[in-house]
Amino acid sequence: MRRLTVLLIVLLAAACVWSFVVAREHGWWFPRNVSAFGERIDHLFELITWIAGAVLVIVFLLLALVVWRGARAGRAERAHGDTRLEVAWTVLPAGVLVFLAYDQLDEWRELKYAGSRPNVPVTARVVASQFDWHFVYPGRDGRFDTLDDLETAYELSVPEDEPVVLELVSRDVIHSFFVPALRVKQDVVPGMRPVIWFEARESGAYEIVCAELCGWGHYKMAGELAVLPRARFDARLVELEREFASNGEAAR
Amino acid sequence: MNAPQSFWRRWVFSLDHKVIGLQFLVYSAFFLVAGGALALAIRWQLAWPWSKVPIVGEALYPATGGVMTPEGYTVLFTLHGTIMIFFVVVPLLLGAFGNFLLPLMIGARDMAFPRLNLASFWLMVPAGAIALASFFVASGGPASGWTAYPPLATIARAAPGSGLGQTLWLLSLFLAGVSSTIGAINYAATVIQLRAPGMTWTRLPLTVWSLFFSSIIQLVALPVLTAGAVLQLADRMVGTGFYTPANLVVNQFSPEGAGHAAGGLPLLWQHLFWFYSHPAVYVMVLPAMGMVSDVLAVHGRKPVFGYKPMVLSMGVIVVLGMFVWGHHMFVSGLDPAAGTAFMLSTILIALPSSVKVFNWLATLWGSRPRYDTAFLNAVGFVALFVIGGLSGLWLASTPVDVPLHDTALVVGHFHFVVFGGSMFAVFAALHHWFPKMTGRRLDERLGKLHFVGTFVLTACVFLLMHQLGMAGQPRRVADPYVYPGLAHLKPLNVFITKSALLLAAWQVFLVVNVVKTLLARPAGEKNPWDATTLEWETPSPPPHGNFDLDPVVLRGPYEYGGSGERDHVRQVEPA
Questions:
Q1: Closest by Cα among B571, B554, B478 to B44
Q2: B392 contact partners, CB below 8 Å, separation of at least 6
Q3: What is the ipTM of this complex?
């Protein structure tokens, strides 16, 4: 049983390491990042992964070693502790943890603190309701809740390589606006109007996922983020304007 | 007090802490089966969405011919979480092992308040029954997750299960909350008041310390959730609006139009909920840590290394654990400055846990283990708990939590702590104290077989959930493959589900072991493991009243090894 236990411990450590080494080739890693800020989140993730991985390997090898060594003859020493060791293994991890805490302060500040919000008008308002995403652009007057607001569903278009600011609104329950490729996630809480910002660096279509349980249809509350070069983004707004106008005429 | 008693007095409405402990054990075992079945149904859907659920499908989903429904799926994970936390792990650790061990280990004849103890069990019976009944409500079972976030949970029109189902869920939570609170009063009072002569605070076994600390958490934090649940009940039933903001239109329905007050804050519930429900994690892991420390010492034949740091680190966890709840709310709209504060406290709480891990390693260093089932499960606890602790580092980091929050990575993380941690400690404790409970040792061969398979399969089920979460699979979705970007994760989900089915099947070895052992004739060994603590000074199983003569404690709980006549000196032995 001693050998088997040691084997199990070593195997589990190996499995942990393996599951990260092969993750990229199997598509088990984060989707490719396309936001300016996402890189820094990924970098922090990797830093923590390396530190946690090193700690895991060391602790598991120690665990395997102490389990292995138990077969010697004679009795254990009746030792109740050692203050120097206690101090050592308190101070050392404390140092690593303080470093980790300190190292992420800047990222968090730039990501969320109101002072870091780019000085551009709100690009669009995200309106969440069971189980759809709706998006409202302010229209030519640049203001929301006016007659020229442009509304669309499912697909949110934003310009490439520019700071984008979104205002999130929910009509009913809590939803969460999650774009994995941008490393963006923010709960959309009714009664609050959280504002998020990002800069997408690559045009293309990316998934919008609802990440907060919002009812029976939560699983299918998908949307799409279309990152467009500036010219095409402007053209898209004009197209929406035209649709809006023709709908208005049809209604008349 | 110890006169012969009728069947009802002895086994049903017993005041004996040992019988109540066994009642809690049977109770949580029943709910473990129920909660486990729900877990398997969840896994079935994630691997093979919208295919007929085997065996129970047609009974549960008659309208669809046995295929899961989206609303049915939300009920599954709501009740899985609720049952496993409130009706399995907490009653198992505190109700069952806590009740049985605490008076015995401090040399008391019973709990300080035996009638409160009786009440705390019998409140759990309607609590559990109501939770189960909520599953069968015609309008739908509770469907807003075990976290019950308003307005989804408070507005009946928001989800099929947010009608009667959610009301029952809240009643059940309220009863369980009252039960745990009076239980905690009892444990704390017992440790403070009823320690045997000589049983000073520094001679308490770590199991007792851990139960004491868990009770403190329950006493301070749980009333907050219980009160919060009452407010949610009021929002639903008498039209208050503590958690409901203004101007909602839910499913074409205006709560205000129907006379509901508005102007409330959904985040208020999240604060009240997590103020208890994060410390609850420590309620579920501290007793596990305490029992594992005891098992490692007894079966490793060596004193626990660093008794005082072990106690101190648990104390730090209790205090710091009250100030980390906000890490569940990093992306909820919480003030980012508060997020920074909660990040710091959360990172800091890794420290006492890591101190404990190093002390366990040092306890094992130079030990002379028997490599029996109790010991193996305790080692398994250390290994799996370390993984769960380390994966928490990602989630403690505010920026990294953003892409990971509410993904399968979180699910993997806390299952390593609660299944890998708490449940392996329970397996260790069961093998260690079964002889005291019943007078019979569990079979070692079956026990080892159970350990090896359960250990391997636990890793197979929960390890790769981290990768699912990194790849972006959200929690609580009935069909991840609606998102084309997640379609390639199906083989991984299938592997996890198959492992989970096997893990559940593997528990047959534990069941067979327990049944077989119970059918055997009791050997009645008083102290089969040559242990030193007080519970081994009385017959197995102990009589009502526990000790014929009140024990007098003369030394600490971990006098193992050394070069004396025997390799251990009991707490009551004179020098």
A1: B478
A2: B346, B350, B413, B417
A3: 0.96
* Residue matched to tokens 């197995």: B540
- Tell me which residue in B369, B455, B470 faces A30 most closely, judged by beta carbons: B470
In the predicted structure, residue A249 carries a pLDDT above the cut 90: no
Sequence-separated (6 or more) residues with CB below 8 Å from residue A205: A224, A225, A226, A227
Residues 83-102 of A with CB under 8 A from B: 85-86, 89-90, 93-94, 97, 100-101
Give the orientation angle of helix B350-364 with respect to helix B336-348, to 10 degrees.
10
- Please, what is the average pLDDT of chain B? 95
Does any domain span residue A85? Answer: yes
- Tell me, yes or no, whether A22 and A42 share the same domain: yes
Q: How far apart are CA A171 and CA B249, in angstroms?
A: 6
Same domain? A30 vs A7: yes
Query: Does residue A195 belong to the interface with chain B, where contact is any CB pair within 8 Å?
Result: no
The whole-angstrom distance between residue B441's C-alpha and the CA centroid of its chain comes to 25
Beta bridge mates, A35 = A200
Q: How far apart are CA B372 and CA B300, in angstroms?
A: 10
In a domain, A201, yes or no: yes
Token couple for B388: 């769960």
Chain-centre distance for alpha carbon B517: 26
Q: Residue A168 maps to which CATH number?
A: 2.60.40.420
- A53 lies in which domain range? 2-71+81-112
B474 has a chain A CB within 8 A of its CB: yes
Provide the residue ranges of all domains of chain B, joining segments of one domain with +: 13-537
A244 and A126, same domain (yes or no): yes
DSSP alpha helices (H): ranges in B439-524? 444-462, 465-470, 490-506, 508-519
pLDDT tens sequence across B412-470? 999 999 999 999 999 999 999 999 999 999 999 999 999 999 999 999 999 999 999 99
For A70-130, give the secondary structure using H, E and C. HHCCCCCCCCCCCHHHHHHHHHHHHHHHHHHHHHCHHHHHHHHCHHHCCCCCCCEEEEEEC
**Residues A218, A147: one domain?**
yes
Which of B251, B305, B371 has the CB atom closest to A5's CB atom? B371
Angle (deg, nearest 10), helices B444-462 and B490-506: 160
Amino acid in position B110 = D
Q: Is the pLDDT of residue A250 over 70?
A: no
One domain, residues A128 and A23: no
Which of A31, A63, A218 is opposite residue B472, by nearest beta carbon? A31
Q: How large is the greatest C-alpha to C-alpha distance in chain B, in angstroms?
A: 82
Q: Flag whether residue B368 sits within 8 Å of chain A, measured between CB atoms.
A: yes
Q: Say whether both A42 and A58 belong to one domain.
A: yes
pLDDT band at A170 (very low <50, low <70, confident <90, very high): very high
Alpha carbons B161 and B143: distance in angstroms, whole number: 5
Q: CB of B424 within 8 A of CB of B386?
A: no
Tell me the C-alpha distance between A138 and B528, whole Å: 77
Domain assignment present for residue A76? The answer is no
Q: Please indicate, yes or no, whether residues A165 and A147 belong to a single structural domain of this protein.
A: yes
Which CATH code fits B13-537? 1.20.210.10
| Same domain for A140 and A50 | no
Residue B240 pLDDT more than 80? yes
User: Which amino acid, B435?
Assistant: P
The residue behind tokens 């991984």 is B492
Q: Say which amino acid occupies B570.
A: R
B339/A contact by beta carbon, under 8 A: yes
pLDDT, position B58: 83
Q: How far apart are CA B252 and CA B115, in angstroms?
A: 50
Domain count, chain A: 2
